[in-house]
Structure formats: C-alpha cells, structure tokens
Amino acid sequence: MLLINMIGIGYRITVITDRLIRLEYQPENRFEDRLTQFAANREFPAVPVEERRENGNVVLETPALVLTYDEKPFSTQGLSILLKETGAVYHYSGDHVAGDLGGTARTLDEADGFVHLGPGIFGKDGYSVIDDSQSPVIEDGEFSYREADEIDLYFFGYGTDYYGGLRDFFDLSGKCPMIPRFALGNWWSRYYKYTEESYIDLMERFEKEKVPLSIGVIDMDWHIVDDVDPKYGSGWTGYTWNRKFFPDYKRFLRTLKERFNLRTTVNLHPADGIRAFEDCYENAAKHYGIDPATEEPVVFNFSDPKFRETYFEEVLNPYEKDGVDFWWMDWQQGTGLKKEVDPLILLNHFHMKDQEDRAVRPMIFSRYAGPGSHRYPVGFSGDTILSWASLKFQPYFTSTASNIGFGWWSHDIGGHMQGSKDIERLIRWIELGVFSPINRIHSSNSMFMNKEPWTLEEPYRTLMDEYLRLRHALIPYLYTMNYECWRDGNVLVRPMYYICPGDPEAFTVKQEYGFGTELLVGSIGDPMDQSLRMAGVSMLLPEGRFYDIFNGRVYRGNQKRKMYRPLSEIPVLLKAGGIVPMDGRVSGNGTPNPTALRILFGAGADGSFTLYEDDGVTTAYENGACVKTAITVTGDAESTVLTVSAAEGELSLIADVRDLEFVSYGLTAAAASKAYVKTADGKCREAAFTADDQKHTVTVSVPGCKTAEGVTIVLEGFTAACNRYAEETFAILDAAWMDFNKKDMVLEHLKVLSNDEFLKWLAGADVSEALKDAITEIYAD
Asked: Are the C-beta atoms of residues 618 and 511 closer than 8 Å to each other?
C-alpha cells in the first residue's frame, strides 16, 4: 500500500521509514505513483508519525526526524528536516547537498585520477538527498519519461547508521542480485586482434604458468571490423564473427568451456543497429518486418519492444546457445536525446531481464546508468589511463560507490591506455585488483602494453602469479560476501566511516576500505620511497587487535598511522576474532566449491562466520538451495578453540569430505604448547602443529573431514604474539638504500636502549622521516 502522510496544494510527503522521507512538489498535484528507475518498490509498512501545526507550518515527527514545511513551493526557509539524534538540520536547496559523501559516476573513461561523483545516500552531517525527478518511470515493464514536471526527492537521514541506511535503500530501490560464482575469479581481457589459434595458445600459456582464470573476455575484434563496406558505415557495431580470426567460432567457444573451464563474454557496441552485411540480418529484418532485399537497417531503438525481441531472439540468444555466457555492453554514445530514456539503462535492464526470463542467473557487464543501477551488475568503469593518479583514485571510487548500493565495479586493472611502462605501478594495481570486487586485467592493443605474467622479469612475474592465485583462493570468502550483499545489503567494499562511525579521521583514509566483514585493506597508490624501498598508505584501525595476513605484523586498534610495505605486499589486516575461509587447493581454471579449506583465524577474541555455498550459476539460491557451514573462534591466546560445524542444507552441492587447514594469527608457541583435534564422535587426540615465529601463525592440518560432521581444534599453552622489534627493524635497515654509517648508528642504539628509549632517540635522529615512521610502525602493537 502506498502510504501518504500529508498531501496539500502542490505537495505530497510520504514517510517511508522513520529516517527516509519522500518529498514531492507539483503545482497541479500530478504526483507520480508508478515505479521509477530508482524507486523499484512502493510497498512499505506504516511508520509511527506525529502530525501537527506550529507557527503556520505543518510538522511531521518520526522517532528519528522532525520535518517542518510552510506548504509553499519548496525553499530553503520553508522546508527543513531535523535529525533528532545529532541536531543537524537539512534545509532544502534544490541542489547538491553540501557534505554529501558521494555515490559513483557513469564512467572513468579517459580519467587521469579524480572524477566528479554523483550523490549517495549518506552525508558528513548525517543526511543526503537523492533527486528522482528526472529518472524514467516504469509501467507494464516499459520505461518512459514523466508527463509532468515534478520535484521528487528522497531524504535519507541515517546519521552514522550506514548499514541501516543501505538496508532501507535496497528495500526502496531493489536488491542487488547475486552474481555468478565465476565472476569472482580472474578475468583476462585485452583490446587485441586475437585469433582462435592465438587465444588458445594464450590459455595454454596461462595453464602452464599455473595461473587460474575464470572468464575469457574477447574485445570487439571478435566481429568484423575492418572489412565492412563503407556504404554500411563503420565496423564499430558488429554481430558477425570474423572468420579470418575465428574460422569456427563454435569450436572456439566450445574449447574455452570444455578444455579450459572458462566462461566467455564478448564486447558489443550496439548503437548502429543490425545492418545488411551481418549474417543475422536476413532473419532479423524479417522478424522486425523489413524486406531484406531493401537492405534497410534494423535501427537500434531499445525503447521499442519489437526491436528488443528481434535483437535477443535473432542475434544474441543463438550465440548464447553456442557458448557466449554474457555480454559486455560498451555503450559510449551518451544518454540519448532530450525526453528520450537513456539507452544505457534500457540495455542494462533488458539484458538482465532476458536472462531472468530464461532462468539464467543474470549478469551483464556495462557502465553505470544512475541510481538503481545496482540491480544490474557487473559495472564496467571504462577506459582508464595508466597513471599513479588513476590507481590511487580507484579504491576511493570503489568504496564510495557503496553509498549508492553499487557494489560490483570492475576496473581496467593495470590501466587501459596512454601512460608509460611502470612495472611497480602494475604490481600495485594487481594487488588492488585481487582485493577488489572484480579482478579483470585489461589493456589496449599496443604491442608494448603487455600484462601477461611471463612477459615480466623477476621478481615481478612471480609476484603477479602469486597474487592471481590468491584471488581464486579467496573465492569462498568473496562468494559468502556476495550472498550477504543480496540477503542483507552488506556491500563487499566498505568506506572506513562505515567501520569507524563517528570518527572524523575515517573520512581521510581514502585508500583504505573494509573488504567484507573480516578484512581491512590498504591499497598503495604511490611509488616507493627510493631510499626506504617501500611505499606507504595511511590506515585507521577501529578498536581491537589486528594481524597482517602477509607478514603477521600485529597492530593495536584505535590508531591511525601510515603503514609501509615492500612491493610484494600491501596491508591486509585480519581482526582478532576474524575468520576468512579460503580455497585450500586452487588448481586450474574455474571457481568450483572447494574440496579443501584453508581457514584464517584471528586469535585473541571471539568471532563467527558462516560459509555460504550454492550451485553458483542458477537462481535456486532465491528459494534457499544452498549449504551453510558455521565457523567459530573462541577463547584467548592461552586456550583458543576453532570449530568448523557440520554443514547444513543441500549437501549434494559440496564435497562429502574436505581437507581442512586451520591457520591462527597472533600466537607464539612455547615448549608446553599443544594442539588437539576433537571430532564429532567425541574423540580427542593430540595433533601436530606448525608454528611460524616470523608471521605469528600456528597451523593445524586435518585431512579427510566429513562435511556433514564438523571438527574442532583446541590450541593450549600459546601466548599472544607481539612484533619482533629488533628483527623487523634490522630488516627495514637492511633493505634500505641509505648511508651505511646511519644504518650502523640506528642499529647500535637499538641494541642498547629499551623500546621507549629507542623510540625517543629515533624521533630526533639524523635519518629520513620515512625511515623513522616505518620503524615506529613496528612498535604499533
């Protein structure tokens, strides 16, 4: 039921939740009740609202907000909303809300760093506004422009309750669907004139390199480009496989799927319609009602149901039967004519709907088309310039998109065009890609812009290989976050103000973000200090205790500081009580449910995590077809209990038996330390463990665990780890390219002074500030 709380001459006010209000002004009272691109739901339960009049104004008061309105055309003086919790007041402005924390942008095409962001639903003052006045309406499944000019605003007043705001946003604007599991692996993409032979050779080389992939992307040269008769126009739009490059495209697609276990997407620029040189033209023309003999084009018009029917049934669907899994819509022609619905939103919507109608778990690959676009993942952010500025902007851009619910951006990892060769920057970009929603390596067709790992010299080749393997190992964790986004609206990449609400410093750490519920990531977007041989990133830590999963370094919470890393690492911090399930046996392409699990635990606090698995490709998850496995960590360093409970649900979806590896961070072994395994039959036995004193980890392996039964590990007699101050300081000095006498000076003072005395001496020492800061970081535990 559409709930109208107040209506008068020219205005209508609807309280959707106690912190979400719709504000409409239309002089003729021609208000909009249809769904829109942004507002996908009009059905909400009633909210307790007190209505009264004060000083000639109408007042609506909810448990969280007080709205005051003079019943005239909206104005700064006449319309205000008070946030009761903080006292902040919104005054209507008719423009962008000052303090808005931003949403996202249509594209990063040709951007060298920062781009202007559209609005999101949160602001530094606790509120923001989404203007829905211009978005198209939806009626009987079709999009159109509104007949009446209307101010149609949605006021979000959620203060620092970011997760509550997102839940209500998704209730209003529609859920973000689960993307297929294969989307979370490594994508290989390049704008390049591949042939069937060269692409198969490429996949064989990746196989030899033992680098897993899940998606093969074929850019626009899959179709005829250069051999189009000029009378038809350019070859930018095309639907006919280029048989010079792919003499048997069905065999090619079949080989990618059956031999290499890859999903395939191909690039589309659909703006020029379906023209007479295309193989599909005769059938498409007849379907649309054109005599093929006239060679009249089937003009692109996605507002026309008949064109869409022709486009899908005669052009795309047959290729999907041949092996194309989804389509990359590379729409670059703008937002359409005045009073014309943006073709991009129509492409995104109807491509998704076509898959839904055929019982396929839908996924597209396309640019952002405004609020509501989260319903159409995955986002293609466009052709990025190769620069440090582009790299540095992307983590901020990705995390801020969560403020408009757009959680599945895919960037050109490594950059797409222009710029210059910089292997350090490429590795930093790969590191970001692995800890991004989608990891799609991409580049232009320049013969010098090579990102295949084997084209890099050591140690860069090995670093790239290892990070790409790590991406596939992370898929069990990522897929669970995919499920949580659909179920609860908890996006994967989270700005730090979600995690440290109310802390003003959280707005300053733009390269740091939460990566799911368990990890904090600091993306490094600056070149290394040539003397220190490391680069740094500012990070803010909430309350608790944290462990770097790469080097085991320990950090206390409630601090902001710069963290330094060599090229081989970025800071990825696991909280005490955190749990990250990983694939323990990454082998080959694809993203199957794992037959072995490697589970990271943060010792020192209680925590829980529920691993989610399903078939990965159908929509059966919407009806509960899945498996859930509860995992917990309890206790302190002296007695840590790690439990993987019996899996519950449709167990046929997972292996009957799994090898388990329990890796606990933040522990130091002693002579009396013991590990025990408790099985579901009540038996308990002592187990071997491996302690890594450098990384402060304790690992216990338990092969052959029945997934229907579960297992518990008990670690007894360990101690809470602290950083190895002397050893780690020495390692920093040893790696630095600096004066040997200064290295010796620092080392001598390290040997004879206490920690506090050493840090006090170091603060005034004649060495670089970067060196001081990097060494001081070691003592931040």
From this structure: no
Closest C-alpha among 36, 34, 710, 734 to residue 345: 36
Nearest CA to 274 among 229, 318, 304, 315? 315
Q: How many CA atoms lie within 13 A of 563 on its CB side?
A: 28
Cis bond upstream, residue 58 (ω within 30)? no
Q: Rounded to 5 degrees, what are φ and ψ at 628? A: -125, 135
List phi, psi (to 5°) of 355: -70, -45
- What confidence score (pLDDT) does residue 2 get? 55
pLDDT digits (tens, 9 = 90+) for 736-780: 999 999 999 999 999 999 999 999 999 999 999 999 999 999 999
Q: CB–CB of 289/309 below 8 Å?
A: no
CA count, 13 A, side-chain hemisphere, 59: 10
Q: Which residue has the tokens 């409409």?
A: 24
- Based on its alpha-carbon atoms, the radius of gyration of the chain, rounded to whole angstroms, reads 28
- The DSSP line for 45-88 is -----EEEEETTEEEEE-SSEEEEE-SSS--TTTEEEEETTT--
Q: List beta partners, residue 374.
A: none
> Looking only at Cα atoms, what is the longest distance across the chain?
93
Q: DSSP for 533-593?
A: TBEEEEEEE-SSEEEETTT--EEESSEEEEEEE-TT---EEEETT-EEEEES---SSS-PP
DSSP annotation string for 399-457: HHGGGGT---EE--BT-SBSS---HHHHHHHHHHHHTSS-EEE---S-TT----GGGSP
